Amino acid sequence: MRSGARLCLLAVSSLLLLAASSDTELPLQGYSAASSRIQREWETKFRAIPEPQNQRDYMQRLSARPHHVGSPYDKDNAEWMLAKFKEWGLEANIETFDVLFPTPKVRVVELLEPTKFTAKLQEPVLAVDPTSNQQAEQLPTYNAYSADGDVTAPLVYVNYGTPADYEQLERMGVSVKGAIAIARYGNSWRGIKPKVAAEHGAVGCLIYSDPADDGYAQGDAFPNGAWRPRDGVQRGSVMDMPLYPGDPLTPGVGATKDAKRLDLKDVKTITRIPVLPISYADAQPLLAALKGEVVPEAWRGSLPQTYHVGPGAAKVHLKVQSNWDIKPLYDVIVKIPGSTNPDEWVVRGNHHDAWVNGAEDPISGTVALMEEARGLATLLKQGWKPRRTIIYCVWDGEEPALLGSTEWGEAHADELRRHAVAYINSDGNGRGYLSMGGSHSLEKFINGVARDIQDPEKKIPVWKRDQLKAIADAKTPEERKEARDRADLRINALGSGSDWTVFLDHLGIASLDLAYGDEDGGGIYHSIYDDFYWYTHFSDTDFSYGRALSQTAGSAVMRLADADLLPYDFTGLADTIHTYLDELQKLLQTKQDDAIERNKELEEGVFTAIADPKKTSVPPPAEEVPPHLNFAPLQNASAALTHSAERYQKALEKVSSNGELRVSPADLQALNQKLMRSERKLTSTEGLPRRPWFEHLIYAPGAYTGYGVKTIPGVREAIEQKKWKEADEQIARAASALQDEAALIDSAAQALANGK
Ligand SMILES: [Zn+2]
Questions:
Q1: 631 vs 678: CA distance, rounded Å
Q2: Per residue in 308-332, pLDDT tens?
Q3: Three-state SS string across 640-690, please?
Q4: 53 CA distance to ligand 1 centroid (A)?
């Protein structure tokens, strides 16, 4: 599902300076020198196994026909992968769930006035692209979980359809009340667009792909280049996943045969208004019919016409009706039992379902995962015995609503909370830089893995390439210094948009998300053109970055599965929490300054004086100046966490001098059990305000950003939404979770000190 948001690696402060890249003399984090040597030998063997040609062959097979949830080829793919895993000697099975998955029955978009035009709503066959003609099996262009509806109304252009865009509309004196909003794709997750439109009184919503964002303004359009052609359409889910993802009928529990299900009418995650995605070829006549003000400069796309806000004479008829059917999901689950600690699980996943043929999203990631599994199977035959249990998962139903991973995570919630060490996700892959996102307790760990993987084109470690890019991209001298001097590259916090969501946000399992990309342009996302032809012409055409992803994620799995001491590190976490706290304080300060400034300008008559009397311009409303908030509990918690992290680090250094790890096996076991709970400590079973499914108090997808992350979300969103009392309460809650985390780390440090 994920799109964009690939690379944003900024490096920071200088904590440790022993980061000599690929220094094979230093023991791996969580290993003694002896066990590290053995581990490195196995990893070296492993990294030689994944084959680009195999990935190419698997992709050709898995993307040969459309394979969305409920389609014959979706099931066929699951069974084929199951057979492959078994052929390699792995223990594998398919777990099924039954979920609500709407598919289109009626789709109409027509311009009724001032002229007549009927939208085609169809992506044409391209002669050069051999799978583009499988129309009988393709899911038509639509947004899954749109409400059914039949509306005729004037049209208003709302830019990207974010809350800020509606504030701008108000200043122009334009309302979407009773209108159909037409938004362009981009800048926020698509599901936010109909949600915000409905909150402002719109009766329908159209989302189109402007060539400025992923079409000819970016590069040559497919089939001449990688970018979206005029009739290309981005399908996708518009479910309110920031409320809860997964099957709408079974929130919080696995959608098994006998699960208790909600009535469809009681479901809160389906949009309130009908919505359809369209191509720019279909959008152009509609946009051309708009009158009213010319849009602000930042709202202009790349179509060869003047963009107007509307409304005017343009009247549009929008009709959407879906088949609201229950469809089966096929999750393929592979289990490699651990030899000494079978009750500690390392979980790895990528989805296999697609909107259509889905070569890039998700098969480029699926095939990397398959080659990893084959690699591990080969090592097992050579005598490798992973200490912990490894579970490989190929999820179904990610595209509609993270269905397969969420239902599996909910069905196995108790076991996962007890046993899971970490979850490692990928979701598609491309050419370019390694992007690393995830829990900051794994920041040092994944930096360590990235130092040992070679970039297939530049022949330098992928970590080094990321670091040099961070130096090149730094916007300030401080950022540049950080990129050079900080021991580890900062990893992105995770919002939502792929299968880590249930593990991290709901179950509190430390998670990572990995992908290569950024040098592989693309505008075929969720269209019929995301297929084998496109991928093998315009993305990672030789699958060398596919091999790099297998090597990266597979090495991470092995290193977590074999470590003597679980390789969490808390100094990076503490440092990150500190930056979040700074951001929150600055956010409040900015809001206060902005409100004071705005009220002053209102008093001075600035807005009325500069308004062009020939245009509509409404002064913004006066703002209540935000009160001061008491950040002290968070400041104290952040300081406590920093101290605990340092104590743990010192205790660890003490027991691991001279390349030894002087902790008895029994003590190690107890310590690992403790450390496994460290991410869980950052959650609360009450969850976030108004969305209790989201239990993590440090990371969550934004209620109004969708994929985009909100860190310390309870506090941040309360400030953004001007809920001051709630902000104070949420500061206390986040602080208490961080204090618990600090106490756990302290007790781990104590255990290390006593054990030696
Ligand atoms: Zn995907």
A1: 23
A2: 999 988 999 999 999 999 999 999 9
A3: HHHHHHHHHHHHHHHHCHHHCCCCCHHHHHHHHHHHHCCCHHHECCCCECC
A4: 22
Amino acid identity at 670: A
Ligand 1 centroid to Cα of residue 238, in Å, is 15
Kindly report which listed range (16-25, 349-358, 468-477, 645-654) carries the lowest average pLDDT score: 16-25
* C-alpha 497 – ligand 1 centre gap (Å): 8
Phi, psi of 314, rounded to the nearest 5 degrees = -60, 120
Could you tell me the distance, in angstroms and rounded to a whole number, from the CA of residue 364 to the centre of ligand 1?
10
- Ligand 1 geometric centre to CA of 365 (Å): 9
262 Cα–ligand 1 center, Å: 27
Helices and strands: H and E segment counts in the chain: 23, 16
Q: What is the largest CA-CA distance in the chain?
A: 82
Nearest CA among 356, 321, 548 for reference residue 454: 548
What gap in Å lies between CA 688 and CA 192, rounded to an integer?
18
CB-side neighbour CA atoms (13 Å) of 290: 24
Alpha carbons 465 and 545: distance in angstroms, whole number: 14
The tokens describing 625, both together, are: 């100046």
- What is d(CA 35, CA 590) in angstroms, rounded to the nearest whole number? 51
User: Per-residue confidence at 1, pLDDT binned at 50, 70, 90?
Assistant: low
- Beta-strand pair 91-113/117-118: antiparallel
For residue 526, the CA-to-ligand 1 centroid distance in Å is: 9
- DSSP E strands, 173-298: 180-184, 204-208, 236-237, 275-278
Joined tokens for residue 426? 């990928």
Q: How far is the CA of 400 from the centre of ligand 1 (A)?
A: 10
Distance 324 CA to ligand 1 centre (A): 23
How many Å lie between the centroid of ligand 1 and the Cα of residue 729?
36
Centre of ligand 1 to C-alpha 531, Å, is: 13
Query: For residue 373, which of 332, 428, 331, 344 has the smallest C-alpha distance?
Result: 332
HEC string of 349-417? EEECCCCCCCHHHHHHHHHHHHHHHHHHHHHHHCCCCCCEEEEEEEECCHHHHCHHHHHHHHHCHHHHH
**DSSP strand pairing (204-208 vs 275-278):** parallel
Query: 394 C-alpha vs ligand 1 centroid, how far in Å?
Result: 12
